[in-house]
Amino acid sequence: MLFIAIVLIAVAGALSFAAVEGWLNIPATALIIGRWVALSTLIYYAFARKSLTTTILISMVIGVEVGLDFPEFSQNLKVLSQIFLRLIKTIIAPLLFGTLVYGIAGHSNLKQVGRMGWKSILYFEVVTTIALFIGLAAINITKAGAGIQLPPVPGDDKLPVAKQTLTDIILHIFPENIAKSIYDGAVLEIVVFSILFGIATAMIGEKYRKPIVSFVEALSEVMFKFTNIIMLFAPVAVGAAIAYTVGHMGLGVLVNLMKLLLTLYAALAFFLLFVLLPVALLFKVPVKAFVNAIIEPVSIAFATTSSESALPKAMKAMENIGVPRKIVAFVMPMGYSFNLDGTTLYLALASVFVAQAAGIELSISTQIIMVFTLMLTSKGVAGVPRASLVILLGTLASFNLPIEPVFIILAIDELMDMARTSVNVIGNCLATVVIAKWEGEFVEQQAESK
Quick one: pLDDT at residue 256? Predict the structure, then answer.
């Protein structure tokens, strides 16, 4: 059935291309009907497989077709993906709190928590630094911003520009009001509060510790079940997100900005193949089981452009292939603030692109200072679609660079965000397995059974 579906879609696509090029005279309505007949076989295959991952991937294909055929209607579908993101955001705080406190107070001793902490930070900073320099090298090789004609900036179209000082960055780590942190979706602040709460719980007597540990364990289980319920809506949300993107921007948006887009995708592919894959092989990560486990959370992150939407599913997937819950609960939330591989690579690339588009020559030393500034200011931006743009604007202001070229990036930012968010999720999933291996607690038998 899958083979038949692929053949039919390929034929329908070839006929549509031939009609657009003027090689064949086929009515547009007939082409649309032909494509939907081909897609119906893919839909049937999804129902037959009864796999959430398969359904999500097929819904992305259907979303592209809806966006192409019904661009105006597709603009109304954005609300479906927004509903999904809102529901996911309700999970994040209680899930992080429950799993972190249970991991620290229920299983780990405090010495192990400290050990996992420094190992995680060391791994995160090494990998993200490499990502920064790959982004820097890629944009200097392709010079995608050179020779671009800057578009006029509409007078009423203002972008938020906020400089971040070192004090702001440090204060952003510590919550002043946990309810406010939950409301704002400040992942790093929630993590710090949960870690401190877990340490405090571990230090009190058994009489008081036991009921709290039982509660947070139950809370974690409930939130994982809550996630399973919400994930039933994921195919609809993912398809709607893709349909909105294609309908809003069209496939033609790639033509003028293909060089920048290809630079980012090539740099991210290089990072995956020559950084993350060697790391996986070095730590003897079961690559096949790992890839099978991350397909679903990565596809969700790709379509929604929010790594936060993939967090609950990614945590469960890593636990299923043999990473103990206490390590998943500790490492992955930290990674969402300190291990944004895709975002840091993108920020390095985008900042130099802006200078190139503005005709400003930056020395290598200035570029290096800029990307290290971005590495610091990007902490804690995960989970918010295109929040990296705000960080980019703040950094440009700090280095007295113009913001007009950012309007060029805005045209394809959603397509770029899909790729960098997916790499963020892959990097954080791999980090949990690496730390589990480093701690000697990875359960090999679970991975082998997947």
Answer: 44
Provide the residue type at 181 as one letter.
S
Nearest 5°: the CA angle 177, 182, 186 is 90
What span, in angstroms and rounded, lies between the C-alpha atoms of 371 and 366? 9
Check if the beta carbon of residue 421 is closer than 8 Å to that of residue 266. Answer: no
Angle between the N-to-C axes of helices 341-357 and 387-398, in degrees from 0 to 180, rounded to the nearest 10: 50
Q: Residue 75: is its pLDDT beyond 80? A: yes
Q: How far from each other are the two terminal CA atoms of the chain, in whole angstroms? A: 24
Checking if the pLDDT of 423 tops 90, the result is yes
**What is the model's pTM?**
0.72
pLDDT exceeds cutoff 90 at 389: no
DSSP string, 49-69: HT-HHHHHHHHHHHHHHHHHH
Is residue 229 packed enough to be buried (19+ CB in 10 Å), middle (13-18) or exposed (0-12)?
exposed
d(CA 364, CA 272): 25
